[in-house]
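pasting for the record
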Amino acid sequence: MDTYTNMQHPILILVRGLPGSGKSYLAAALQKTIGEEACVMLDPDGIDYESQEYKDHVTAQLAEGVDPALHAYRFSRAQAYQGIEDHKIVIWNQPFTNLEIFQKMVERLETHATENHTTLPMLVVEVEVNPEVAKQRVAARKAQGGHGPSDGRFGRFVDEYYSFASEGYNVISVRGEDDTAATVAAIMDRVAALATQS
């Protein structure tokens, strides 16, 4: 959509939910609707860890003494920073169950926007799903050679997950089992409103 290729400011869309909720499918549908040229898509499960770009990033991080556990996050964050500078829509797809980590990440992105003399309107898309349905989807994905957490880790995701609407964030809650086209349309109504903010 041409609407999002020359925006006055970037937009941050954070897609969160349990593994198997349909986050990645929804994020990809949003990217297609918005237009790939206008988006930066971030997903730790989608990083090409064998790419030269990522290997160069790791080399630089190790030289700085950065904990390897943070390398993938910092790789995504660097891409988010570039998207902010380029006034793109940054779609970050991750479970985001830990509120404290989520808040720190958002604060860093907002600070980067401020340092680049722009605003960063944000929408948190929470993909709700029955945990048993999500667990079955993860099991099926892993059986086909895909990624997914262990049963224990999945259980911790379920125990820790709750809506961030009560924390003051701009949240839209959608159902992972609902029609994707209708869900994308509802989200895009909210994104269009953010695009017109001054």
